Amino acid sequence: MSKILRFEFYKLSKLKSFYICTLITLIFTVLNAISTYMIAKTNYVDFEEMGVDVPLSYTGWTYSLSAIANSQFLTVFGVFIAMFVCSEFDDNIIKNIYSRGISRTGVFVSKYFASLVAMIVMFVADAVLGFGVGALLWQVGDVGNYFVLIATQLAVLVGYHGLFFFVSIWITKTGGVIAINVVYPTLTAVSFTLLDKLLNIDGFKFYDFTLECFYTNVQNINLSGDLIARAAIVPFIFAAIFALSGALINTRKQV
């Protein structure tokens, strides 16, 4: 397994799409910060009059927390993981890998950890740049509970990584996986919101336990302790379920 693991990390280090996708998220982070700053300076749009809650004043810490949303992180990473995981399946190279005596489990684990590391690198780069841009345009500000919230954000992204990886291993076709990964967050939000409206269960909402709910809320510096706890624990449960399901599908899938 160590041989295929080294190969996957080597492939990742040479993969142009990894650097391109990371660069795209960083560009979005900078552009969003500049546009927000300019809007605040020119008062071009009166958001309060429109009834829209949009923060026009950040600090380095708070903008870093909003970086994953401002950079279209989920969309870009969903596209990247589809290309990274499915490439050998699209080109039928996976058959040659298996014919060399490398197990399906070895391939699965190696791809899983390599793509997870790629996600962490993209996330850290985005958060660090977000802090720098926020501090430059506004101020550094108070750190508050930043490190708790940024760790919670990473936990939520681990859950999303598990989901995107599961879809990639299951479908194994880059185009189809990209389509699912891109629409899933919006589809989840709409579906579970409608389900909660229909069932109208007092004191309970299914949406409150979805990755999309956690992803949306962990950018808030004033997040409640209860939501932080759920957002830090539930995504790992999802990630474990997706990993086990993906491993099972991988062992039985015809190539």
List keywords for this structure.
0% strand; mainly alpha; 255 residues
Strand-pairing-aware structural class: mainly alpha
DSSP summary, beta strand count: 0
Task: Give the CA-based shape.
Answer: globular
| Count of all domains | 1
- Ranges where pLDDT stays below 50 over 5 or more residues in a row are none
Q: Report how far the terminal alpha carbons are from each other.
A: 20 Å
Main sheet characteristics: none
Characterise this structure.
The protein has 255 residues and is mainly alpha-helical. Helices cover 79% and strands 0% of the residues. It has one domain.
Task: Summarize, please.
With 255 residues, this protein is mostly helical.
Helix-strand blueprint:
Elements: H1 2-14, H2 16-42, H3 47-50, H4 60-70, H5 73-90, H6 93-99, H7 104-137, H8 146-171, H9 174-199, H10 211-217, H11 225-252
